[in-house]
Amino acid sequence: MPRRRQPTARQERLGTELRRLREAAGLKGREAAALLGTDSAQMSQIESGAAGVSEERVRRLAAHYACTDVELIDALVAMATDRTRGWWEKYRGALPTRFLDLAELEHHATFLREVQFLFIPGLLQTEEYARAVFSYRVPELPAPEIDLRVQHRMQRKVVLEGPAATPYEAVIHEAALRIRTGDRAASRTQLTRLLELSEADHISVRVIPFDLDGFAGAASAMLYAGGPVPRLDTVVRDGPHGAAFIDSEAQLGACRGLFHKVVATSLEVEQSRDFIHKMAKEL
């Protein structure tokens, strides 16, 4: 298969998981390459996501690596043979790659969990709110680029719509609800939209109020995306150079525990809805 100039996060993840299986089996890259009748350079490209890999090769590698986790192997095969060209592809070359990677991650997620402290989660934002967020950047973005980012953010919401909508849980701090990215009317519209979305069976919104005792988790913002098996879950967190995709088993476990801890210190869903409704009325 031809070398990819810029592999996606999903393609890189497949390569990473194949490398982890190889390392767990105690094999070197050249030894794995020999099993496929190829060389170390090709094996390195497969494990970095720069080269594709067929179903037959994934299953051969898994057998040689003594991997007996059938669900994991099937999930890796699905990743290797996936030819989906989602709506996000029309933004390739126009927006940073991480925008597209995030949309693809959400598209394939079996569930989504999010914690935010300063902003309304992107999947729940109104167009006006999103535009205000992107417009505040310094240096300012050109108007056409702001338009593209807003359009992309609005299209991401497709995962929450329709009969195959993805289960979504959000925990939002009161600070994010009170910060006005626009005027009072825009804030009221955003809160009303939150209430409307929270009525859906597959969406739950919880609030962490300012006056809640015992909360010290303001650094726990994240988007947790469930994979076909827990090992293939992914966490997205903001880093110094943009969104960071986290997939190590230890860090995933820590983030699962952190999410449950944040949920345990938040208001119940009905209490949260009442809280947001009261805030909207005050505006």
Automatic annotation (TrEMBL):
CDD domains: HTH_XRE. SUPFAM superfamilies: lambda repressor-like DNA-binding domains (SSF47413). Gene3D superfamilies: lambda repressor-like DNA-binding domains. InterPro entries: Cro/C1-type_HTH, DUF5753, Lambda_DNA-bd_dom_sf. It comes from the Bacteria. Coiled coil: none annotated. Residues 18-72 form the HTH cro/C1-type domain. This is Transcriptional regulator WhiJ. It comes from Streptomyces thermogriseus. The lineage of its organism: Bacteria, Bacillati, Actinomycetota, Actinomycetes, Kitasatosporales.
